[in-house]
Amino acid sequence: MLHLYAIVEPGTQCAGLGPDGEELVAIDCSGIVAVASEHARPLGSVPTEEALWEHERVLEALLEAGPVLPVRFGVHFADREALRAELQPRVPELARVLTEVRDRVEVSVRLLARDDAPEPADEVDAVGGPGARYLLERLGTRREAERKLDAVRTRLAPLAVAERSRLLPRPGTPATAAFLVERHLLDRFRREACELERELNDVALICTGPWPPYNFVDEPIGATA
Amino acid sequence: MATPAVAEATRVCYLYGVVLADRLPLLEGVAGVGDAPLSFVDADRLVAVVADVARRDFVPPDAERADTAWLEKAVRAHESVLERCLDPGPVLPMRFATTVRDDADVRALLREHQIEFTASLERLLGHREWGVKALLADPAALAQHVLRIRDDLSARDRELVGRSPGTAYLARKRLDREIALAGDDVAADAVVAAYQRLAAASVDALLLTDSQPRAERVHLNAAYLVVEADEAAFEAVVAELDLEHAELGLRYELTGPWPAYNFVDQPERP
Amino acid sequence: MTAFAPSDEAQARRELARQVTLVELLDRILDKGVVISGEITLAVADIDLVEVGLRALIASVDRLERLRPENADV
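YS: structure for the whole thing
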């Protein structure tokens, strides 16, 4: 049973990176390498926080050595044959994506805002009743979130190679954005985000990372979100 | 020691505690165990506070039939009787659920232990037992204090900001463990000093080892025998400690006055 | 008057960042990356993890807000 961590370039150092110092296996797939660990049986179906962090730690260690296409937690194959069968047809695409993310890391910028209740609509606006008012309020909240997210993208996208962002339905966390950033621009990016937060004043920007490029390996980098 | 006579008797005598004859408590309005009415049995200078209970209404709990509701109610009743006894003077508390056959047995008990009971009560005259606990109310505050005094740990804490999330997570766990251990040391030093300051304000002091589990971690659990006239000063020390150690996340809890459970056999310090 | 030392806000911010990091991890590791169709045996519990993470997050935002110097009680 093989648990998959990531796709990397041939020659990437994988020794001793596994959980509890276990060996990882590098499975060659004619042009790319699949990094996995071998187990007698599948992992339990409910991941613990520990297990998730272990998976992430391995990815980050691989990221130190070269480009990484992260695979989500829990993907496993019965054996090498099954794995190769799955990956073989996709080698050209995966090899291309690897070059696109070389020396680039993902930074997340999450917007956090206080859940201030929107102004209650005037009595006069109660045309359509409470349902309409609720929708108008939600729309107002959504527009606010869009405005804030736009400010973030406008300011930070120029420092990034690509960006994926989305509005979130929950109050308190109106939006989150992922940026693919050249490694050497990471500090500059963070500084810019700090300054932006000071200017925006009514929202917190929490930067986390550097992450392996989870959000940028599904589609060609050039495509816009 | 249950004799065949006790096992067959329909009524038994429940013993709460022993007081001095010239310090009788007022027992109006106090409900005893099983609501049985309270009375006194005297022998010379000693008076036992008792209740005549029907054996079938009151069966001392044993491990197998742990009726926790009954037990809780009975323990509270026992305590409230003892609290009332504590108003005018010291009381030697009997262990919960001590029963003998009848008044005659009570008198015999008092006579048998007359010298030691009288000596204990006289020693306790003018004193009351108080309990002091130090609890970790705010672990985050303690952690912050540790980071303030340990440059090495706070440097590692700051370093984590730039690390990638997975590696940071592991390093964070290790750091948190070290901060917690350092915090334990800080708290231990603080409560040792506290124990001694409180001992200086009292006649006798004792560290208690067993205590009920609490939501907050217990760093100190101690009993003090305090001269009644000095109680205000003792309380002031507790208040000072509570204020001074707040930045360590500790809070102090004063309970009492208690029947002198812990100081019945202790000789006074010279 | 409660004075908030700069370190309190920095501390709260780091704590908030830690919580955000967990939410970000869950967002990625359970859901993103290259799509490889092996066997996946993840229970629905993964969604609960995100919920829990987000709830903790919202509570932390309030705390951070309160620690901002302009919000301190005078």
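YS: worth flagging: The two ends of chain C are 4 Å apart (CA to CA).
IM: good catch. Also Residues 1 and 42 of chain C are 51 Å apart (CA to CA).
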